[in-house]
């Protein structure tokens, strides 16, 4: 009897073992939830190349932008958990947006988290020829001209938009919000004068700063940008004491084979804990690399989801 049970068990386990051993047999799709040209896209394309080398298989980036990242993230969530679809996931689509408008996926159960690249860095930018040399000067000017200006950034519910609205409320700015699919759109609108400021990421903005077209007034994160060290943090301006926090992570659909998950996680950990990679990402993309395992990040998401449910629930009740 015991022999029959063992034989049955081995028959059930064998296909999974064979599948994991043969994976990957064809190209892997890496979904990016933002448009080409964004920091997420640039980092993802570099990661895809490095993963290809580690796994001896092509990793192809596919951009699925829209709805603050929800469209691309839902593409990951609803794909087959066979290891051939992975993708980048932005923190708001897991912890914030589901409380504001709902999402077609369950943010706590729809994913197999693989790794955290690191925290997103963002900054507040204006045109280089604008009269404001500091964020304090911009704030004072907007206060004196209520409802006359607009800022632009990513879709509602993203940390970019929430931070700018928080600044508007706390500093009594009274400016209007215009949503864009990505930083590449908002910088065009900034240069055209249709918005007065944008909260954007390094990859799009650093070349514009270098070219003398835009000026960075402040880092919205807890630290100054290594690439633009003269720009103060929000806290250093004395206007507010808080910062903008978000994460760039990678995930696969829930139900991913454990052995395939282990292969992907091991490859990503090797890449993201390499000192040379960390330095290159910071210098080339303005992206800090602070690796976390998928298991660690799943706990962070759960805690942050509960925190934002409480925070947004209180805000709605005011």
What are the SSEs and their pairings?
Blueprint: H1 2-22, E1 28-32, H2 39-55, E2 59-63, H3 70-77, E3 85-90, H4 92-95, H5 97-100, E4 111-119, E5 123-127, H6 135-144, E6 150-153, H7 159-171, E7 176-179, H8 183-191, E8 197-200, H9 202-210, E9 214-219, H10 234-237, E10 247-253, H11 258-272, H12 275-285, E11 292-293, H13 294-317
Parallel strand pairs: 1-2, 1-3, 6-7, 6-8
Antiparallel strand pairs: 3-10, 4-10, 4-11, 5-8, 5-9
Helix pairs in contact: 2-11
Written account of the structure:
It is a single chain. This protein has 318 residues and is α/β, with parallel strands linked by helices. It is globular and about 85 Å long. The chain starts with a helix and ends with a helix. The protein has helices spanning 2-22, 39-55, 70-77, 92-95, 97-100, 135-144, 159-171, 183-191, 202-210, 234-237, 258-272, 275-285, 294-317; strands at residues 28-32, 59-63, 85-90, 111-119, 123-127, 150-153, 176-179, 197-200, 214-219, 247-253, 292-293. Helix 2 packs across helix 11. It contains 13 helices and 11 strands. It has 2 domains: 2-120 and 246-317, D-Maltodextrin-Binding Protein, domain 2 (3-Layer(aba) Sandwich); 123-237, 3-Layer(aba) Sandwich (D-Maltodextrin-Binding Protein, domain 2). It is 47% helix and 18% strand.
């Amino acid at each position: 009897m015991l022999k029959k049970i063992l034989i049955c068990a081995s028959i059930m386990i064998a296909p999974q073992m064979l599948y994991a051993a043969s994976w990957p047999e064809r190209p892997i799709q890496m979904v990016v939830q933002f448009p080409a040209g964004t920091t997420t896209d640039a980092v993802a394309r570099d990661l895809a190349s490095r993963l290809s080398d580690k796994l001896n298989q092509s990793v192809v980036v596919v951009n699925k932008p829209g709805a603050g990242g929800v469209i691309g993230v839902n593409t990951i969530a609803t794909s087959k958990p066979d290891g051939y679809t992975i993708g980048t996931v932005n923190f708001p689509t897991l912890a914030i947006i589901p409380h504001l408008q709902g999402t077609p996926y369950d943010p706590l159960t729809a994913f197999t988290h693989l790794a955290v690249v690191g925290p997103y860095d963002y900054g507040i930018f204006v045109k280089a020829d604008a009269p404001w040399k500091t964020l304090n000067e911009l704030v004072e000017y907007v206060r004196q001209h209520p409802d006359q200006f607009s800022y632009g950034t990513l879709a509602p519910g993203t940390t970019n938009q929430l931070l700018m609205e928080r600044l508007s409320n706390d500093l009594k700015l009274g400016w209007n919000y215009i949503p864009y699919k990505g930083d590449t759109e908002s910088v065009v609108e900034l240069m055209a004068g249709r918005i007065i400021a944008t909260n954007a990421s390094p990859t799009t903005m650093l070349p514009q700063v270098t070219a003398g077209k835009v000026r960075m007034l402040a880092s919205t994160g807890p630290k100054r940008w290594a690439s633009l060290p003269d720009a103060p943090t929000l806290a250093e301006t004395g206007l507010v004491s808080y910062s903008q926090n978000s994460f760039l992570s990678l995930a696969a659909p829930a139900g991913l084979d454990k052995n395939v998950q282990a292969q992907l996680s091991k490859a990503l950990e090797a890449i993201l804990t390499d000192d040379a990679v960390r330095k290159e990402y910071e210098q080339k993309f303005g992206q800090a690399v602070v690796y976390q395992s998928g298991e660690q990040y799943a706990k962070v998401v759960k805690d942050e989801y509960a925190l934002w449910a409480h925070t947004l629930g209180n805000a709605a009740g005011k």
